[in-house]
Amino acid sequence: MKLLINGQAREFPELRSGATVQDLLKALALKADRIAVEHNGSIVSRTAWSATSVCEGDKFEIVHFVGGGCTRNITQKL
Fold it and tell me: What's the pTM value of the predicted model, to 2 decimals?
Protein backbone atom coordinates (compact mmCIF):
# COMPACT_ATOMS: atom_id res chain seq x y z
CA MET A 1 0.00 0.00 0.00
CA LYS A 2 1.34 3.45 -0.94
CA LEU A 3 0.78 6.24 1.59
CA LEU A 4 2.01 9.78 2.07
CA ILE A 5 3.60 10.12 5.53
CA ASN A 6 4.66 13.62 6.61
CA GLY A 7 4.96 14.67 2.97
CA GLN A 8 6.98 11.65 1.84
CA ALA A 9 5.65 8.82 -0.32
CA ARG A 10 6.15 5.48 1.41
CA GLU A 11 5.19 1.94 0.52
CA PHE A 12 3.90 -0.58 3.07
CA PRO A 13 3.67 -4.06 1.53
CA GLU A 14 2.59 -5.47 4.91
CA LEU A 15 -0.61 -3.38 4.90
CA ARG A 16 -3.57 -4.84 3.05
CA SER A 17 -7.18 -3.90 2.47
CA GLY A 18 -8.87 -3.47 5.83
CA ALA A 19 -5.73 -2.11 7.53
CA THR A 20 -6.25 0.50 10.23
CA VAL A 21 -4.32 3.46 11.59
CA GLN A 22 -3.23 1.19 14.45
CA ASP A 23 -1.78 -1.27 11.89
CA LEU A 24 0.11 1.58 10.21
CA LEU A 25 1.59 2.76 13.50
CA LYS A 26 2.70 -0.80 14.25
CA ALA A 27 4.35 -1.00 10.80
CA LEU A 28 6.14 2.27 11.60
CA ALA A 29 7.18 0.92 15.05
CA LEU A 30 5.86 4.05 16.80
CA LYS A 31 4.98 4.23 20.50
CA ALA A 32 1.31 5.12 20.77
CA ASP A 33 1.71 7.20 23.91
CA ARG A 34 3.99 9.75 22.23
CA ILE A 35 2.31 10.62 18.94
CA ALA A 36 -0.64 12.40 17.36
CA VAL A 37 -2.08 11.38 14.00
CA GLU A 38 -3.76 13.42 11.28
CA HIS A 39 -5.41 11.36 8.53
CA ASN A 40 -6.43 13.11 5.32
CA GLY A 41 -6.64 16.44 7.14
CA SER A 42 -8.52 15.28 10.25
CA ILE A 43 -7.10 14.45 13.67
CA VAL A 44 -7.72 10.82 14.62
CA SER A 45 -8.27 10.30 18.34
CA ARG A 46 -6.26 7.52 19.93
CA THR A 47 -9.49 5.63 20.70
CA ALA A 48 -10.38 5.59 16.98
CA TRP A 49 -7.06 4.24 15.67
CA SER A 50 -8.23 0.63 15.61
CA ALA A 51 -11.47 1.55 13.78
CA THR A 52 -10.08 4.02 11.21
CA SER A 53 -9.39 2.38 7.86
CA VAL A 54 -6.30 3.15 5.81
CA CYS A 55 -6.60 3.19 2.01
CA GLU A 56 -4.14 3.45 -0.86
CA GLY A 57 -2.98 7.05 -1.32
CA ASP A 58 -4.09 8.31 2.10
CA LYS A 59 -2.15 11.22 3.60
CA PHE A 60 -0.88 11.23 7.17
CA GLU A 61 0.87 13.74 9.38
CA ILE A 62 2.34 12.06 12.43
CA VAL A 63 3.97 14.13 15.13
CA HIS A 64 6.08 12.92 18.05
CA PHE A 65 5.92 14.52 21.46
CA VAL A 66 9.35 15.21 22.90
CA GLY A 67 10.06 15.80 26.56
CA GLY A 68 12.57 18.21 27.91
CA GLY A 69 12.74 21.88 28.48
CA CYS A 70 14.68 24.65 30.04
CA THR A 71 17.11 23.75 32.80
CA ARG A 72 17.11 27.32 34.11
CA ASN A 73 14.79 28.26 36.95
CA ILE A 74 11.77 29.70 35.12
CA THR A 75 11.20 32.28 37.85
CA GLN A 76 14.55 33.95 37.07
CA LYS A 77 14.46 37.17 35.10
CA LEU A 78 16.09 36.89 31.72
Answer: 0.82
